Amino acid sequence: MRASTRKKKYLVAETAFRLFRERGYDNVSVDDIIAATGTSKGTFYHYFKSKDELLGELPQRQLAVLERWAKERSPLRIGSVESHMLQLFLDLGSVLEPVPRVVLHLAAVSADQPYLRRLQSRLRAALLEELMRWLGDRDKAAFLLAVYDGTVTAWLNGEGASLEELLRRRMAAAWAGIRHMHEAEDWTIGRGAGAKEEHRMKIAVIGGGLAGLTAAAYLSEQPGMEGVLFERSPQLGGRAFTYEKAGFTLNYGAHAIYGIDRHTLSVIEQELGLSFGSRQVDKRRVMYAKNGEITTAPLDFVNLMKTDLLDAKGKMRFAAEAAAVIANIHTLKNYPTLGDYLAESGADDTVKELWEHLVCSNFFIAPEDARKVPGHVISDYYHNLFLSQRPVNYILGSWAVITNQLKLKIESSGRWNIALQEGAESIRYENGRYVIATKKREDVFDRVIFAMPVQQVAKLLKGTPWEPFLAPYENNRPTEVMVYDIGLSRIVARPFSYISDLDSKMFITDVSATDDTLVPEGGQLLQGVAYLADDAFENEEQRKAYLDERLAGMEALFDRHYPGWRDAVVVKRVSKKAMVQSVKHTADNRLLPVRLESVPFYFCGDGCEGKGELAERAFSSARKAAELLAAELKPLAAATR
After folding, report:
1. At which of 386, 413, 442 does a domain end?
2. Same domain, residue pair 318 and 231
3. Closest residue by Cα to residue 537 from 546, 550, 529
4. According to the UniProt entry, where is the signal peptide (predicted)?
5. What is the pLDDT of residues 28-83, one digit of tens each?
6. Residue 433: left (phi > 0), alpha (psi -120 to 50), or beta?
7. Over the stretch 304-341, which tens digit does the pLDDT of each residue have?
8. Is there a domain that residue 573 lies in?
9. CB atoms near residue 440 (< 10 Å)
10. Number of other CB atoms surrounding residue 434 within 10 Å
11. Number of folded domains that form the chain
12. How many other β-carbons are positioned within 10 Å of the β-carbon of residue 80?
């Protein structure tokens, strides 16, 4: 690119960043940028393929800083490595400081935009290489890089007046830590009299879904631990796996978070220094359909008063029930199941149906299963949700924004490895440690965390001394639904963000109405979900006929609310039986404890005991497992001093 062209491209980006600062990224269109710069649409698209690609200017400018440093600076010509490294980080930070909102959006979308992802990877590799050139030690380079990442995240979360101030303060603390590491190394390698060599506890985490990644990320912060994260498939994330097709980002697991302000993920965001954006579904555009009539969903008091699902008496009854749940005095928590409560509640059929439908939609289960959910589970869940100021939010850019950051945190520790396409085939106890065998190798570990469906854990432990203790959990039934994703070349209709059909027991979410990072410009992404009953079919034909009937019903629902969708389809994906949760939280299933008596392992995942439902239970149980294991390390570390 000629110098004059580079300058024009730079000015277009500068103008766009100014508009983003003033109005917010989502409120600035390509046409706004073109008008403000006086360029043509053709010129803009010559420089950038899309508005999102324009965000690549930030890592490009940071790469230019690194390239300049690599050419102009020599380790032989500086007085202090510490001050020299600080100046490098300050120069990199100066690129980000003027545009925090742009940096946030870049973090949200880069994981799912190949061009931006490549740029970010190239930047990280170049920065790590530059740090290693000066420090000559990969662990120390990775440590400083992690401090830099954490400082940027803290700045974005408003923890400092300026990025420069935070970088100066935290890098000073980081170098103090490095100097302390030198002193500790001198002692542990035998330079001090009677020194003991440091022993790190070696951990195996089996399963690379949300739970496994979370547990490993927490443990990677423990200097006395090292480990391996084993994942059988070629990619991380489990049911939160994300992929791109024809410009559409598709999630195997819906990336909606219920009650994000009271959610475990918000705690993890702070504790692990994650950075992601989210956007709330417009509550006024969430609808229910019954008997062919559409009405507002009673998500709050305003919508409850507007809805046609209940008469005046029913509205007063349900408002009173919601208030009792919020106050934690509802008698529902004392009943074995929702069905038991409804049978004795004295409420009319419309109130009973509303309770049933709420549980269906939040737990992704059919009505007959909704009535089997324990009363205390529903009471606890809706106590949090009714108190939430942000009841339904989407993680901008999909689950990959979270999973990629967890992966990076694990790898940057320098003490953990991620083994993809390497599932555990067997486990045995030998000489006080646990030997895990995969198809590629055998390795020895001090502790093991199982972050996989409990049914798979029970299968893996068959024939071991621990088999009897897992037997009560091996027949747990999963939550399965039919998922129908369609990516459309244009917005065919946008009458609402969500429509739930009470008659057919299925719903459609206009995902792109909330998260527009998942679609190409002008596109629309719809996701239909049909609840599936656990019917025992006499043969395969009956089961197939049932699923075909549900599929036809879903397409009919698309036809009714999004006419013309068939002519605009670019991407279509149907999962006739997609697992939403590895254990359906009904009274006839048992969640696995994080620690099980007489079993030496730790367990986490959405089939384990923990806070919330769906992904939240995966996060909360993983956090608890890591906390318990870290506590176990403390007396061992003290004994080696």
Report:
1. 386
2. no
3. 546
4. none
5. 888 888 888 888 888 888 888 888 888 888 888 888 888 888 776 544 444 467 77
6. beta
7. 888 888 889 988 999 999 999 999 999 999 999 999 99
8. no
9. 11
10. 18
11. 3
12. 8
Strands 286-290, 293-296: pairing is antiparallel
Can you tell me the distance from the alpha carbon of 206 to that of 230, in angstroms, rounded to the nearest whole number? 5
Exposure string over 312-326, b if 16+ CB within 10 A, otherwise e:
eebbebbeebbebbe
Q: What would the mean pLDDT of 568-591 be, rounded to a whole number?
A: 93
Residues 6+ apart with CB under 8 A from 242: 111, 112, 249, 250, 251, 252, 255, 398, 399, 400, 403
Are 157 and 151 in contact, with CB atoms under 8 Å apart? no
Question: Could you tell me the two tokens for 563?
Answer: 């006419």
Two tokens, residue 121:
């990877």
Report the C-alpha gap between 616 and 618 in whole angstroms.
Answer: 5
Nearest to 479 by CA among 526, 533, 527: 533
| Whether residue 372 is found in the same domain as residue 467 | no
Q: Phi-psi region for residue 160, left (φ > 0), alpha (ψ -120 to 50) or beta?
A: beta
Distance separating alpha carbons of residues 432 and 454, to the nearest angstrom: 25
d(CA 416, CA 419): 10
Residue pair 535/546 in contact (Cβ under 8 Å)? The answer is yes
Q: What's the whole-model pTM score? A: 0.70
Tokens 């380079």 label which residue? 141
Please, are residues 607 and 593 in contact by the beta-carbon 8 Å criterion?
no
Report if residue 489 sits inside a domain: no
